[in-house]
TrEMBL record:
GO terms classed as biological process: rRNA processing
GO function term, MF aspect, one: zinc ion binding
One Gene Ontology cellular component: nucleus
InterPro entries in UniProt: REX4_DEDDh_dom, REXO1/3/4-like, Ribonucl_H, RNaseH-like_sf, RNaseH_sf, Znf_C2H2_type
Protein name: RNA exonuclease 4
Organism whose genome encodes this protein: Nelumbo nucifera
CDD domains linked to this entry: REX4_like
Family statement: Belongs to the REXO4 family.
Amino acid sequence: MDNRIESSETLRNKCGACFRQFNKVEHLVDHMRTSYHSVHEPMCGICRKHCRSFESLREHLIGPLPKVECARIFGVRGCNICLTILDTPNSLRAHRGACQLSRVSPQGLLSRMSNLGIKDDLLKVDGGRIRGPQVVALGCKMVGGGRDGSLDLCARVCLIDQDENIIFHSYVKPQIPVTNYRYETTGIRPEHLRDAMPLKQVQRKVQDFLCNGEPMWKIRSRSGKARILVGHGLDHELERLGIEYPAHMIRDTAKYPPLMKTSKLSNSLKYLTQAYLGYDIQTGIQDPYEDCVATMRLYMRMKSKVHQMEEYPLATDAQNRNNFAVWRQNELERMTPDELLAISRSDYYCWCLDSINVPEQ
Ligand SMILES: [Zn+2]
Ligand SMILES: [Zn+2]
Ligand SMILES: [Zn+2]
Ligand SMILES: [Zn+2]
């Protein structure tokens, strides 16, 4: 009898998001205070369990130690790229055709090269209204400087728009001597850099293009003309280019929690492209255009997730700061797990929020 009471008690103290169970309700409340569960977390399409990252959702569905019932259904009609569950094996086949992307062909690259140089007017007009801020992806390839060639110097840069068209693609002449061209991966030889565009000039072009006429101090999220910048490991690339850009305008696939490892370390772009887009990149000589396309595609995938919209989606929003603190402990302890989940908010900015239209100012 006692046992039964205890187990129903434990069931009551089960987190409504990650399903962890707690012996005492105050432990569940503690867990909710620090977990930042939300509707923006990756979720199992079968049991509705929330996961911190797609990687942990992948483990939940595929293994090595998956949840047995979920793995069984996933094996029949789950997409191993985007991890969604389709209604039937037939709809899975149709879905897979669109979900699995393929590498950009060199021919495609050449035709897209015809627009070399910065295009000034890329406004996407939709029925006379601009659909939110423009998004661009940046990629660089580095050669080595310094005595042992380990200092990264930007030698190639590429910028694309959200339709994968090249905005800018150029060799860059570093400011100090190159001691290692890293030819096997970069394909760069001294003659490519000899008359290349100087770093300072590249820096100005890219910076101006990102700000799009807006002074840096005025750039606010999603309401002005400044462009959202997508990339992988952008801190390092921007640092090497000598470019500053506000963090709230940056979407970095290396630092986006849903795309990180369960250990909270970054995944490589090569891995993310393989796992979440279904094709290989960075084999042999690497073109920064290919990295730009991969990061842009990852961004578009993440942005197009359909999540329920909350009024104040972030734990850092003024209205949600101390969301749990406005309630008394005994009030929180009386709430059901679902009620606790309903007041919990995400601690990271979900990219689905970029798809909300912002009224023009
Ligand atoms: Zn939880
Ligand atoms: Zn979201
Ligand atoms: Zn599940
Ligand atoms: Zn899929």
